[in-house]
Amino acid sequence: MKQTVLLLGATGQTGGSVLNALLAEPDSFVVHALVRPASAVKPEVAVLAAKGVGVRVVDIQGPLEPLVRALQDIDVVISTIDAQSQLAQLQLVAAAKQARVKRFVPCAFITVAPPGGVMTTRDEKEVVYQEIFKAHLPYTIIDVGYWHQISFPGVPSGRTDYARLRPIDLHGDGMQESMLIDLRDIGRYVARITQDERTLNRYMVAYSDCLSEEQVFGLTEEASGEKIERNYIPTEKTLSLRAKYTNLSLTNPTNRMARYMRVTIDYEFSKYIRGDNTPAYARYLGYLDANELYPDLRPIGFREFLVELVQGKSERAYKDVPMFDPPTE
Ligand SMILES: NC(=O)c1ccc[n+]([C@@H]2O[C@H](COP(=O)([O-])OP(=O)(O)OC[C@H]3O[C@@H](n4cnc5c(N)ncnc54)[C@H](OP(=O)(O)O)[C@@H]3O)[C@@H](O)[C@H]2O)c1
C-alpha cells in the first residue's frame, strides 16, 4: 500500500539520499517535505517543489497545533535533522502522536554506539527516543555506517582533493574495524525498512563494509596506485583531546568549533578506541541487520566508491563547507 511520508531534512545530505530513494518509488510513496519558515524561500526548496514534492512550511519548535495539522494525513515521519539540532525534534514527537502517525523514524543515522556518555550526539538522540517510548509512538531507529564520502584519506597527487572534507589519520594501531556505508545507499535502506512491518519498533543497522583504518588506507592505495603516508594518533592523545573539547564545549556552548571537535572526537573514541561500530556489537544491542533482512539490496562497497573517487566521479558531501584542518592540540 502507498505510504504518505513527511521528510524533515530533504535539503540536507542524509535527507537528500532518503528523498532520492522515495521519489524513485512513486508507486510506494507520496512524498512531502517539512521545511522551516526561514528556509521556505531557499532555491533548494523550489527544487523540491519542482520534483513534485509537497512542501509543508512549519516551525517544529513553534506552537503545537500547526505542526499537528501538517502531520494530519501522514503515515510515516522521517527526520534527518542535522547533528546540532536533535532536541528540536521533541515537539515533532508530540505532534506525531496526536496526528496518529503510523511510524516515526527519528534522526538516528549515526554509527552504532551505546547511550550514556560515549557520544554527545548519540545522547541527544536518546532524549528524543525516550520521548517516543514515553508516547508509545510506533518507531524505527535506523543507524548506519560512517559514510564512505568522509572516510577516505587523501593521496599524494591530490587527485581526490576535490571530494575531501578533512584530513584522515589512524587511531591506535589502526586495526579496529568499523562499519561504513555509501551516503547514497542510506535512502535505499530507509525506503525498504519503512515498508517492512518486521522493522516496526526495532533498531536497524545498515552498512556495506566493516573495515579497519589500515584496510581503508590499503584499499585507497590499491585504487589510486599511490603510497599514502600514515599518521597514527596514540589512544592517550585521542582521550586527552576528547576531554579537552568536551570540557570546552560544555563550558562554552556557543563555541561551534569546540562542539564540532567534540562530536568528531566522540566518533573516533567510539569507533576506534571502544570498537562500538561493528555488526557484532549492534547485534548485542538488539539491532536487526539490514543486510540479513534484504540480501537482494546490494550496497555500494567502499572499493567501488574508491574507483569512482579516483576517476574524479564522486560527489563531495557538504558542497558549501570548506576543507577543514582540525586543531591537533
Ligand atoms: N553516519 C555518518 O557518517 C554521519 C555523518 C554525518 C551526519 N550523520 C548524522 O546524520 C544526521 C543528518 O545529518 P546531515 O549532515 O545529513 O544533515 P544536514 O546535511 O546538515 O541537513 C540537515 C537538514 O535538516 C534541516 N533542518 C535543520 N533544522 C531544521 C528545522 N528546525 N526544521 C526543519 N528542517 C530543519 C535542514 O534544512 P535547512 O535547509 O532549513 O537548513 C537540512 O535539510 C545527523 O543527525 C548526524 O548525526 C551521520
TrEMBL record:
Pfam families: NmrA. Residues 1-240 form the NmrA-like domain. InterPro entries: NAD(P)-bd_dom_sf (IPR036291), NmrA-like (IPR008030), NmrA-type/Isoflavone_red_sf (IPR050608). PANTHER family: ISOFLAVONE REDUCTASE HOMOLOG P3-RELATED (PTHR43349:SF93), PINORESINOL REDUCTASE-RELATED (PTHR43349). This is NmrA-like domain-containing protein. It comes from Mycena chlorophos (Agaric fungus).
